[in-house]
Known about the structure:
Blueprint: H1 8-27, H2 37-45, H3 51-58, H4 62-74, E1 78-82, E2 90-94, H5 96-100, H6 102-116, H7 122-149
Amino acid sequence: MIKKEESIGRWISMLYRYGQIYVGKKLHSYGIGKGQFMYLIKLFNEDGLSQDRLTEKLNMDKGTTARALKKLEEQGFVTREGDENDRRSKRVFLTTKARELKPLLFSVLKDWNEILSQGLSKEEKEQVLKILEKMANNASEFTREEREKE
């Protein structure tokens, strides 16, 4: 039996929840919820993704993405436009209002990373990143294999 202190999932879940609280507090006054933050970050890297592709890249379900984008659209941070090549698809674009917040959004990420890595050496930080990347790849591969079984 795994003790709760030894559960990797427990610690990852805790870090995720604390991160959501941190982001939520930092962005609340701007009208950006903790559930919308990651969509903006992804769009800063790849503006104009289709809604479906955004869903895939963030590994979210379609309903969650639709709700998050609706809220971001209502707040004036994104627009959704029909795709010229696929009429069934909507492409998502950042607005000027969102672009103006880019430095703040990336600062929030940077500050959270600094909080998490406080007291870690450069080598420890590198090791943590390699381990987390390996774990994410394991989870991704497992999920892909499970989907193929369905």
